[in-house]
Specification:
The chain is mainly alpha-helical and 464 residues long. Helices cover 78% and strands 0% of the residues.
């Protein structure tokens, strides 16, 4: 049985990979200066990590099922700690990108074991509460990452500027490794699925075909190869689907089971989750660069600027589980609506006062945005798995987290690229356009929330 301390250890382990996607954002200008990195390269430092992370998440889950979840969890933490050290010591931007890719691969070994351990060792209310805490942890990590990053970069410990944002993972990782052996039970699946190598390769190729041209194309003035690779993305996606369908028909378990994606709550929830995560990943990237490049704030002030969002996200995360249990899918629509209001207010504040925008002026809009985001995060993780059969819950959670990380990475590569492309016109204008795109996406989530199935305590509409 998993104890509360064991739950906390698993959540701390999951916190590290998630926070590392965002902690780098406030350090990007400093990395650019010290390592002479271009804007597309900076995007790759963020999105490359997320792409490898997303592509290997389900593989990490399969390894945990067959080799033992605690063993793979600890092994992933060891690798994550070592790759974090490599990131912190990287002498060039090329070495930093390589270390970030390896760090993303090790992160994919950690997170699936958390959800799978909850499924294997907890039942009823305790499982629902643990899953809710995971959703809250995932959301809080995204916001806290930039705050902690700003503090560490500004502290400039021993003249190391941005490097402590990675080096801080080393002592925390060692602590979690030590605690995991004592408090996390050893579990594995009675019928583990083998790793779907063809599906994994094709899915990773699809993400790469989307990411690389979108990240590098603008700076390179869109040479023919970028269009060719981008055109390959839908073909690779179609090939992935066909291979996965064929694998499932043979009786094997594919990386992304088509039958699982056809489940109502998964199909509709993933359709809503993708635009939300696209916008969320881009927001953190765009906000950090706007505050530092446009408003000329240092890394500390940039990190502190996000504090209102962090505080309200925490409060919203504490309130969301009860609201979801009472109002069901309405909590998702409400959260998305509140977030949209916050984003519009943020655009109005920046556009109406640029360039004389004080960071304190952004606080009300950020607080509203953070509160709404907490409800969307919590609702998605609860509602998407509502119709998934219990024996497929682990795979369903892996698919959801895979979509989350894919969306975050692609958000940086798409909306982030729009922002970078418009920066020469004006940082304020670029910010307004990028956040405006996110606001539209959030409105779509609010409208689409009515198509989601209900949860306990809410009448479930009859399928049309």
């Amino acid at each position: 049985m998993l104890t509360p301390v064991g739950i906390a250890v698993l959540l701390l382990g999951a916190f590290l990979p998630i926070v590392d996607f965002f902690i780098v954002n406030v350090a990007l200008p400093t990395i650019s200066t010290t390592l002479h990195a271009s804007a597309p390269t900076l995007e790759l430092i963020v999105a490359g990590y997320g792409t490898v992370y997303a592509a290997l998440l389900v593989v990490g889950g399969r390894l945990g099922d067959s080799l033992g979840r605690r063993r793979v969890f600890v092994g992933g933490l060891v690798a994550f700690t070592l790759t974090s050290l490599a990131c912190g010591l990287a002498p060039s931007v090329g070495m930093l990108i390589a270390a970030r890719l390896a760090q993303g691969a090790s992160a994919a070994m950690i997170v699936p074991q958390v959800l799978a351990s909850f499924q294997a060792t907890l039942t009823g209310h305790r499982r629902a509460r643990a899953l809710g805490l995971y959703g809250a942890t995932a959301g809080i990590a995204t916001v806290v990452g930039q705050l902690v990053g700003g503090l560490l970069v500004t502290a400039n410990i021993a003249g190391t500027t941005w490097r402590p944002i990675f080096l801080v993972n080393v002592p925390v990782g060692l602590l979690v490794i030590a605690l995991a052996g004592r408090f996390v039970p050893a579990t594995r699946s009675d019928h583990p699925a083998t790793v779907d190598l063809p599906g994994t390769v094709l899915f990773a190729a699809t993400l790469t075909a989307l990411l690389v041209p979108l990240t590098e194309g603008r700076t390179l003035h869109w040479p023919p190869w970028t269009w060719l690779v981008l055109a390959l993305a839908p073909l690779l996606g179609l090939a992935t689907y066909r291979v996965e369908r064929r694998t499932e028909r043979r009786g094997a378990v594919p990386l992304l089971p088509p039958s699982l994606i056809r489940v109502r709550s998964m199909r509709r929830g993933l359709t809503l989750g993708l635009p939300f995560f696209l916008g969320f990943g881009a927001f953190m990237f765009v906000f950090a660069l706007t505050v530092q490049d446009g408003l000329h704030a240092d890394a500390l002030r940039s990190g502190l600027a996000i504090t209102p969002m962090a505080v309200m996200f925490l409060i919203g995360s504490l309130l969301a589980p009860r609201a979801i249990a009472r109002f069901g899918r309405a909590a998702l629509g409400m959260g998305a609506g509140v977030q949209a209001v916050g984003l519009v207010l943020l655009i109005a504040t920046v556009a109406g006062n640029w360039p004389d925008v004080r960071l304190i002026d952004l606080a009300p809009a950020l607080a509203i945005t953070g509160f709404g985001q907490a409800f969307v995060f919590g609702s998605l993780f609860r509602l998407v798995l509502a119709d998934v059969p219990p024996h497929l819950a682990g795979i369903g959670g892996g698919v959801l987290v895979t979509l989350q990380q894919s969306g975050l990475a692609l958000g940086v590569a798409t909306i982030g690229t729009v922002f970078v492309g418009l920066e020469p016109v004006g940082v304020g204008t670029a910010f307004a356009v990028a956040i405006g795109i996110q606001a539209v996406l959030v409105v779509l989530v609010a409208v689409g929330s009515r198509t989601m199935p209900g949860v306990v305590g809410e009448p479930v509409p009859v399928e049309a």
